[in-house]
Design a protein that fits this description.
The chain is elongated. It has two domains: about 120 residues, Nucleoside diphosphate kinase-like domain (Alpha-Beta Plaits); about 55 residues, no CATH class. It is built from ten helices and four strands, in the order βααβαααβαααβαα. The protein binds guanosine-5'-diphosphate and magnesium ion.
């Protein structure tokens, strides 16, 4: 079995994060947790890329649609449709407009529990309810209510893989194998090595 320290996850800084000059701040949040940046690029995604990205998990549309219906009900509102797939399609249409509107930063971060740690630092999907101290909670005020009223996707700065399986599928979509580097950071000795002698002179 591969050591956990090799776990990788995909992070996209969405166009709102780039436009708000939060690239450095966002990178800092992951970097200071001890994660290692092993892939990095700037690009303007195509609508086809966004479609492929969110179609990797065939159950995504259904689950995001169910979540959207629940959020309408929580607000005491009737959803525009009771069919989760239809609502999932609406979210995807919104994402296809949102993510192609300008440059995004695509990154691969590596480290023990990288997927889980990155999601924890990033915060929950809806910035209105994301925890304080998370990136989405600290820097955004968008909500399902705002996004639904204006018929657009929730603007929440970041995409981060939701599971190890999702990461395994998403990384090759955005990066060629030779664009992901294998190297050692000095701090890995203190993070991962079994023996940490040799520090004192
Ligand atoms: P994530 O993994 O936290 O990014 O969330 P999801 O995979 O469930 O959804 C993907 C993206 O779609 C989110 O980051 C939001 O930008 C957007 N989104 C998700 N749910 C909704 C929703 O109910 N309404 C709207 N308008 N956008 C949504
Ligand atoms: Mg997701």
């Amino acid at each position: 079995m591969t050591h956990l320290k090799h776990e990788k996850t995909l992070v996209l800084i969405k166009p709102d994060g780039v436009q708000r000059s939060l690239i450095g701040e966002i990178i800092n949040r992951y970097e200071r947790a001890g994660l290692k940046l092993v892939g990095l690029k700037i690009l303007v995604p195509t609508s086809d890329m966004v479609d492929r990205h969110y179609s990797l998990d065939p159950s995504w549309k259904q689950s995001v649609g169910e979540k959207a219906i629940a959020s309408y009900e929580k607000r005491g509102m009737e959803p525009p449709s009771r069919d989760p797939i239809k609502l999932g399609d609406r979210v995807l249409d919104g994402l296809k407009k949102y993510l192609v509107c300008g440059p995004v930063i695509a990154m691969v971060w590596q480290g023990a529990h990288a997927v889980e740690v990155v999601r924890k630092i990033t915060g929950g999907t809806e910035p209105r309810t994301s925890d304080v101290g998370t990136i989405r909670g600290d820097f955004v005020l968008d909500s399902y209510q705002m996004a639904d009223t204006d018929g657009r996707a929730v603007r929440n700065l970041i995409h981060a893989s939701g599971s190890v399986q999702e990461a395994t599928q998403e990384i090759p979509l955005w990066f060629n194998e030779n664009e992901i580097l294998s190297y050692r950071l000095v701090q890995e000795q203190i993070l991962y090595d079994v023996n940490i002698d040799g520090i004192l002179e």
